[in-house]
Amino acid sequence: MAVELLTKEQTLIAVLTGEIDHHSARSIRTEIDDTIETVQPTTLVLDFSGVTFMDSSGIGLIMGRHRLMEIVGGEVIIQNPPLHIQRVMRLSGIERIAHIRTERSVDA
Amino acid sequence: MKTQNTVKLVFPAISENERTARAVVSAFLTQADPTVEELADIRTAVSEAVTNAIVHGYRGSSGDVELHIKLLENREIYLRIKDHGCGIPDVELAMQPLYTTAPEEERAGLGFAVMESFMDKLVVKSRPGYGTTVVMRKKLGSPTCREK
Ligand SMILES: Nc1ncnc2c1ncn2[C@@H]1O[C@H](COP(=O)(O)OP(=O)(O)OP(=O)(O)O)[C@@H](O)[C@H]1O
Ligand SMILES: [Mg+2]
Fold first, then answer.
1. Cα–Cα distance between B79 and B86 in angstroms, integer?
2. N or C: which end of chain B has fewer CB within 10 A?
3. Domain extent for A55
4. What is the dihedral sign for C-alpha A31, A83, A21, B22?
């Protein structure tokens, strides 16, 4: 699991790749939160296009980042989750707190 | 129903083994030629049960998690995940969607909901002080009539 962080003006893009589970969520969380603190973005984009596996630990990860962004009046956008990961997301109702954006060509 | 093949795996309750458990299940299921979706469903359900054993069952302690997987003759997958950890005082309550005893660790309370919706059957047996056993079953579609 790896996370690459890119900043574009007030937007922080976290490009996630590999498997998100309880084990890998810990380091992803630390990396994203440290960058949120220094960059202070108004939008956090979580790019899931390279994620090959995710269980409910990933939902916890999104919920936690939502809470953090909420404090500064910002928002979380979930970008391009693969089909199976969309099913886990739908089950959780996460779209009520984070907008899910699916588009097949994204300029990164 | 007769068992065609079976594997038992015992591993210490450390978070690295969440991935190990999924990898073993994937390798075992190859022989049954599941669809991409069936495989993803089973891997996710296993990950939830194993994570629960590690995160909740052996909270603040250590011990082994047992994973037992069977391929039955009717293309049914049987999975049993067992821990000898703290147990669950009220299983019915624990299985409610969004119920979690660890919200401060960013747990969503969705593990059982995922297992329930991705598998055909889910049975949870637990005894406080003795541990928890999760049994799940899922019947795979027939390999011939799946081409779309
Ligand atoms: N093996 C176990 N041993 C002890 N308690 C357990 C076990 N499995 C589940 N529980 C209890 O049941 C609750 C609900 O489990 P569930 O997997 O649905 O949610 P969670 O683990 O809290 O959150 P999530 O799975 O979304 O990260 C847990 O919070 C825990 O209290
Ligand atoms: Mg869980």
1. 21
2. C
3. 6-101
4. negative
Interchain CB distance below 8 Å, B40 and A29: no
Contact B43 A53 (CB under 8 A): yes
Whole-number Å distance, alpha carbon B81 to ligand 2 midpoint, is 13
Out of B15, B47, B106, closest to residue A64 by CB: B106
Q: How many structural domains does chain A have?
A: 1
Supply the ipTM of this predicted assembly. 0.93
Domain B3-142 sits in CATH at: 3.30.565.10
- Is A1 a domain residue? no
Sign of the four-CA dihedral B104, A13, A99, A42? positive
Report which protein residue has its CA nearest ligand 1's atom 1: B53
* Cβ contact A55:A89 at 8 Å: no
What is the per-residue pLDDT across B40-54, written as a single tens digit (0 to 9) for each? 999 999 999 999 999
- Residue positions of B annotated with a catalytic role: 48, 52, 107
Question: Among A63, A64, A91, whose Cβ lies nearest the Cβ of B113?
Answer: A91
Ligand 1 pocket residue status of B115, Cβ below 6 Å: no
pLDDT in tens, B67-107: 999 999 999 999 999 999 999 999 999 999 999 999 999 99
Tokens of B110: 């969705």
Residue at A30 is within a domain: yes
**Predicted TM-score of the model (pTM):** 0.95
> How do the domains of chain B map onto residue ranges?
3-142
CA distance A88 to B60: 29
Q: Is A92 in the pocket of ligand 1 (CB under 6 A)?
A: no
